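Researcher: I'd like a candidate sequence for this fold, 429 residues long. If you have to choose between options at a position, lean toward the conservative one.
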């Protein structure tokens, strides 16, 4: 069985949770007549949200993962407070990326191809909507998903931050993310994983990905800096036009980094290495690379799944001891590694709907034959047993309060005493 690591690629982590690939229910394999649709939680901030996808090209370096390519090409999305309008709601996943996710990424979670209409899910953000002028200059937060995960897997948290008045930039790390859809209908898939995933092979792979991600994030921050100064960026909007009011909106005097799993480790390294980044959040990721030993001197928050502790994660212990700035660690009782992704909101919906869909796919079944049957989706393995709504609410509250405190100077008591709204969350000294 592959070794379990909290910074492992999503596909590796999935296999590490069970002795073998999750089996698909026999009836589910026959594919429901009508695919299940799922919804993301609505953001809780006072502002409507807008978003735009950008293709960025860094011609100053060769692609670090495919050395034959003479430049690095990325897809990013910007999320921001927007004016209310009639623009269409942006999809959670671009259509071709959703189709590839359906074929390749969903089955290892026990979800058969075609069982879920991934392309049907909409965000709360209006595509290309003008920036809300009344929001003022926008603090910037860079977001990175877990290793192998597309940028879309953080949408639940990201669009909530945007609704609170932040400009959040989500980044796909090409050739590492499961799939990246570029303008013109081009999908770039992740490079194949090595055939034998020993602990040493996984560690080397993660270090390689972490180095590539760090350079990606610093390049993206360069482009956001140019945008904030009203200058041209090295890329263009996927739809051709930048949203009105976006140039000059980013406030580069207030910058944070946020990431899940490997993205959290890279967020810490970015806080350590880049003087433009003021504070960071790690969502349950082990630390990879130098920052595991150096720690950080600026404000940092880490959120932990129930079984992830400094005792079983050596990099957490060394990072914590070395970090000298404001720091907090919060443990979420009942949470698993995937709880800090959109899977927290989506998998319970899918598991609840699939037995019904399977029943509808079998009209010849006798009445009551499906009663009591469980979904083939092992929800607890991926997102634990924590109540999904409270998990999402707590993550939004603590991450939002952290950035409000350290990027906006807005005081909070949330980190000083327990909050009765979130009994599952405990502070670890």
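Model: Candidate sequence:
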């Amino acid at each position: 069985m592959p070794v379990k690591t909290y910074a492992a690629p999503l596909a590796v982590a999935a296999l590490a949770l069970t002795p073998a690939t999750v089996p698909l229910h026999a009836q589910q394999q026959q594919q429901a007549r009508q695919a299940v649709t799922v919804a993301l939680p609505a953001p809780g901030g006072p502002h409507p949200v807008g978003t735009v996808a950008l293709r960025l090209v860094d011609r100053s370096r060769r692609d670090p993962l495919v050395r034959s390519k003479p430049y690095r090409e990325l897809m990013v999305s910007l999320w921001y407070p927007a004016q209310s309008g009639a623009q269409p709601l942006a999809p959670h996943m671009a259509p071709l990326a959703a189709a590839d996710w359906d074929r390749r990424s969903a089955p290892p979670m026990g979800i058969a191809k075609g069982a879920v209409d991934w392309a049907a899910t909409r965000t709360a953000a209006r595509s290309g909507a003008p920036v809300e002028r009344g929001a003022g200059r926008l603090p910037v937060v860079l977001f990175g998903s877990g290793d192998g995960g597309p940028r879309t897997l953080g949408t639940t948290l990201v669009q909530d931050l945007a609704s609170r008045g932040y400009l959040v930039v989500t980044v796909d790390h090409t050739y590492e993310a499961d799939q990246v859809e570029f303008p013109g209908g081009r999908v770039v898939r992740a490079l194949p994983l090595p055939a034998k995933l020993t602990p040493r092979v996984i560690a080397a792979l993660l270090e390689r990905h972490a180095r590539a991600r760090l350079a990606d994030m610093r390049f993206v921050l360069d482009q956001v800096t140019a945008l904030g100064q009203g200058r041209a960026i090295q890329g263009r909007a996927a739809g051709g036009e930048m949203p009105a009011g976006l140039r000059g909106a980013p406030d580069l005097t207030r910058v944070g980094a946020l990431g899940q799993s490997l993205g959290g480790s890279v967020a810490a390294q970015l806080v350590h290495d880049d003087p433009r980044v003021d504070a960071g959040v790690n969502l349950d990721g082990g630390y990879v690379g130098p920052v595991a030993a150096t720690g950080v001197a600026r404000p940092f928050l880490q959120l932990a799944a129930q079984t992830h502790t400094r005792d079983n994660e050596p990099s957490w212990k060394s990072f914590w001891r070395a970090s000298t700035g404001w720091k907090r660690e919060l443990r979420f009782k009942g949470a698993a590694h995937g709880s800090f992704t959109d899977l927290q909101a989506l998998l319970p919906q899918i598991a609840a709907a699939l037995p019904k869909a399977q029943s509808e796919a079998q009209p010849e079944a006798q009445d009551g034959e499906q009663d009591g049957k469980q979904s083939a989706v092992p929800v607890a393995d991926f997102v634990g047993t924590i109540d999904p709504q409270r998990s999402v609410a707590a993550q939004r509250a603590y991450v939002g309060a952290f950035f409000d405190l350290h990027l906006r100077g807005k005081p909070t008591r949330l980190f000083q005493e327990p909050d009765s709204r979130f009994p599952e969350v405990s502070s670890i000294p």
